[in-house]
Amino acid sequence: MGDYAGAVAAARAFLSAGFTVVPIQFQNEDPPQKPWPPQASSKPVPWCYFEMIQVDDRLRGVGLPGNQVWLAVGNMFAHVWVPKGYGLPAHLALAGQVVELFRSRTLYNTEPGVALRCWSEQGQGPSVQGGDRKSDDGNWFGAVVVIPFQLFYIK
Which of 64, 148, 153, 155 has a CA positioned 20 to 30 A from the CA of residue 116? Predict the structure, then answer.
């Protein structure tokens, strides 16, 4: 039966398979490599931090308990970090790859009544929101890709 944990796993797997140009770190996990942040030839390279946050859960359809459609909504965030000096156009192009990966996608539709849609109820899709914000140490700049989601599931 579909649930939020399964949707998170599906979104993570989809990002990992489709956005392979940079290392990705996930919530509550150790960094995927050492050193972290990643380096190549002793120089910092871009990386991504991914999180998925549910903000609401509501009954969407009729039926008996155990056979009702529920809707969970929220946002996925892909924080794309680049080292100082990377350049804004290149940074936005890198973040834009995540936007295009998730645009109009339906994931996790493994059974009837279960689907993770990568757009909001009002139709807003993924977008880069904010860009080139400096890290506390000034060595990194981040852009956030916001991916609204709707998760339909049966309970």
Answer: 64
Task: With H, G, I as helix, E, B as strand and everything else as coil, classify residue 102.
Answer: helix
Whether pTM exceeds 0.90: yes
Q: How far apart are the first and last CA of the chain?
A: 8
CB 59 within 8 A of CB 124: no
Q: Which of 150, 99, 104 is nearest to 128 (CA)?
A: 99
Helix (H, G, I), strand (E, B) or coil at 9: helix
8 Å CB contact between 14 and 108: no
Residue 131 binned pLDDT confidence (cut-offs 50, 70, 90): low
Task: Write the burial class of residue 15 (CB in 10 Å: 0-12 exposed, 13-18 middle, 19+ buried).
Answer: buried
Contacts of 94 (CB under 8 A, 6+ apart): 21, 22, 46, 80, 82
